[in-house]
Design goal:
Helix content is about 40%, strand content about 15%. It is α+β, with helices and mostly antiparallel strands and about 130 residues long. The strands form 2 sheets. It has a 3-stranded antiparallel sheet. The chain has a two-stranded antiparallel sheet with strand order 1-2. It is elongated and about 80 Å long.
Length: about 130
């Protein structure tokens, strides 16, 4: 906010957009047809996940013996894209339940399913 004096001598509050844009160009984006906000690209005609979010899904590091926290982290990341997908990856939903022991059962088949899910999600949502 900037206070300027009108011709009548009375003060008037106004916003100096040039100064605001110069000091805060990372946060404020004026007169753009598409902006990135909270992991989504928001445009006039559509909104979609940002490329950063798709890269995060594609490169999500799953350890060879994941914990329940790792599975939940993956599921929550994918769940953010729920408006763009019909269903969440089903093979992993069962793993969200608390395991009987300390470890979660994880094998090569689940590892392949994870890679396939990453590729499929990025392909479907990225279109």
């Amino acid at each position: 906010m900037v206070v300027v004096t009108k011709k009548s001598g009375r003060p008037r509050r106004t916003v100096n957009y040039q100064r605001l844009n110069a000091c805060c160009s990372q946060k404020f984006q004026f007169a753009k047809r598409e902006v990135d906000f909270v992991g989504f690209s928001l445009g006039w005609e559509q909104y979609k996940p940002s490329s950063d979010k798709l890269v995060a899904i594609k490169q999500f590091p799953m350890p060879s013996q994941p914990s329940i926290t790792d599975i939940r982290s993956w599921h929550e990341l994918v769940n953010q894209l729920a408006p763009f997908m019909a269903t969440a990856p089903e093979p992993f939903r069962e793993l969200l339940k608390k395991p009987a022991g300390k470890r979660i059962y994880w094998d090569l088949q689940l590892q392949r399913n994870l890679k396939l899910a990453k590729d499929t999600i990025c392909r479907l949502v990225g279109d």
